[in-house]
Amino acid sequence: MRRRQILADQKAATAIEYGLIAALIALACIIAFRALGLNLATIFNTINAALNR
């Protein structure tokens, strides 16, 4: 398929939109996990310490 046919194809446009949405969700998850990373580590360490008693 030529480039113009791909760009004009509605299925290709939908696939590109879903790809962009997935990329934005992944980026939001990465940012959230990095922001909460230290807090999550503390929580898991606390749980681990409580289980090891």
Kindly provide the radius of gyration, computed on alpha-carbon positions and rounded to a whole number of angstroms.
21 Å
Beta-strand fraction estimate: under 5%
Q: Mean pLDDT score, rounded?
A: 82
For the secondary structure, the number of strands is 0
Helix tally?
Answer: 2
User: Helical percent range?
Assistant: over 70%
What does the main sheet amount to? none
Task: Explain this structure.
By secondary structure, this protein is mainly α. It has a domain at 25-53. It is 91% helix and 0% strand. It has 2 helices and no strands. The longest helix has 42 residues, at 10-51. It is rod-shaped, with a radius of gyration of 21 Å. 0% of the residues are buried. The mean pLDDT is 82.
Topology at a glance:
Blueprint: H1 3-8, H2 10-51
Task: Using brief descriptors, characterize the structure shown.
53 residues; mainly alpha; 91% helix
Compact overview of the structure:
The chain is mainly α and 53 residues long. It has a domain at 25-53.
